[in-house]
Amino acid sequence: MKHFAKILSLVLALSMLCSVALGEGAQLAAEAQTEVDMEAYEAASTEIYDAVLGEFYQEYLASKEAEDVSERYALMAIAEAKLLGSGVMIPLESRGGQYAITRIAPRSGNTTLWGNDADRVHQFIIVKDGVLKTEEVEELRALWNEVHGTGEYDAKAKAYLTEKGYELTDVYNYAYSSDPNTWDVLATSKQADSRAIINTYDGLYEYDEENVQQPALATGYTVSEDGLTYTFTIREGAVWVDSQGRKVADVKADDWVAGMQHMMDAAEGLEYLVGPEGCNIAGAEAYMNGETTDFSTVGVKALDDHTLEYTLAAPSFFFTTMLGYGVFAPMSRDYYTSQGGQFGADYNPEAETYLYGKDPDHIAYNGPYLVTNSTKENTIVFQANENYWNKDHINIHTVNWYFNDGTDALKAYNDFKAGILSSCGLTSSSLEQAKQDGLFDESAYVSQTDATAFMGFFNVNRTAFSNFNDATKAVSAQTVEDAARTKAAMSNLHFRRALLMSLDRGAYEAQSVGEDLKYASLINSYTPGNFVALESDVTVDINGTPATFAAGTYYGEIMQAQLDADGVGAKVWDAETEMSSGFDGWYNPEIAKVELAKAVEELAAEGVVIDAEHPIYIDVPTFTGSEIYNNREEALKQSVAAVSDNFIVVNKVDCPTSSDWYYAGYYYNSGFEANFDLCDLSGWGPDYGDPQSYLDTMLPDYAGYMVKALGIF
Description:
By secondary structure, the chain is of the alpha+beta class. 32% of the residues lie in helices and 16% in strands. It has 21 helices and 24 strands. Strand 22, helix 19 and strand 23 form a beta-alpha-beta unit. The model is unreliable at 1-22 and 24-34 (pLDDT under 50).
């Protein structure tokens, strides 16, 4: 695929910069490693993937052949159980599940579990002064539960707050920790970028504050009888403007054709969503593979200025749920080319004349906001777009983002108290301050969790031992011998499981949210166990034995059945709560010790001795500039040492700034650049309403976006 070729060329370009930077005693070896054999690296990635995730991949492929949606869900649950059982990652947490205080009416923004629409802020309802009381938050949540789906929540929530004596404001203030690296939503799959850009454009359909999909720049659509052709009617009168609010073009059907081609040309991680692994748009794979350069062969066409047609190669269970994600964003063709943009083989974002998306002054806007100020690591300001087609139906007219580098544990709390921020999560540090100030008892509530899955990833093929962008940052203290022993250990299933089950995740979480809520946001799977449920009875094989699951059975119950059959010893589903979160189903010192004993025996046969005098060193990039993150990694370090009897030693690799930390474990583009043995900095939120949205991220051959976190592809 084009994405595959692009990543290889990037890795080759970086090979001279990524010499292994090892500790004392290994400098000669480090200096000698000035080139990387990419053919060998590619072969190793394939071999390691097959060894580590081969079972998962076979079960995944079987799920794609399912004849109906219920069989598909059941087989995907089995595939995910194989993924979890492989021990390549530790489920950690979702977003939410912590004490918070707020001026924002709960559920006044979209809370759909997938896509980008949850980052839209124009419908927020915010009180100007004061802080919502705990009982008011709960009453508004109850109101939402009562009326959601009716379209009445916005008006009723406003009336409720007015009756309580609050004055509403049209200003939203937010603390952010990472600047967008691009303002081109079609050339990024990172939330740090898309959560800002999403507020600058509208798509075809969007989920509203009641989680109902509503027409946006499409006014309606039809589906052909065979389920392959979707025809959208594009809203008339909507326009594109520049950052100064000056009209640059009309919104028309071709904007989605141009956007789709640009997204495929950019190949920055979104493209798999429209290929065979995603909704399978006709002709998309051939174009992305370079088998054709004629984009007219791809199944997205403007039949006229206000009629847009998508043609799929096969019916998709989830096509319309994808419309709220950036992959289906429109782009003005004329504006793009005016900023040096080109298509197909001529696409070159490194050209001096290419300006599109470099900053917010070089994109076109058709959404609710224009970016009027963007100062790196300081402030981003969004102001209402006076030419927005729906300008009379937004609640928020000014959005201020204020940078917080995380080094001051009380900054967000103090900014909230001062009226600078509209809401604030309470960390272990600010929780105590809120209790002293009296805010906790009166206004604290537990924020709701979402479907985000932050994971701890194990690098099974580590190549980088310092940051790819700056070889002086996050430098490993391991010697060549240490690194070889760690790689051998990470290649062993029982070692990975021992490491996974030795982490007391409750103690780890307590460092950020406090002891009371240390389990509230804990997850135990990649896909939430209640994400989907069977629509009909299904019989599938669990390790060769037929197992029947009734209609209504949750995905998590099937995952649990497969893990139990495989003897993994983890709990990922609680039948009583019907949840896969809110408890620690992986921390198990007894099983961890058994797994470690097996690993020690197997590795000894390979000549790798592991004991307290000869431990395995695990590098974990640590944001030491943050008290909270430093304490989390210290809890991890102590837990692993205690359970393993110091057979495993966690090295906290110093990252004094958040930037150093992000480059070690988040900003890298391929496994070649992943500078860690274990990293807990990254995760995944679903793009659409199907488990495939999670599982696709772990596919081989550069198709899976998160598989790079394993040090491969």
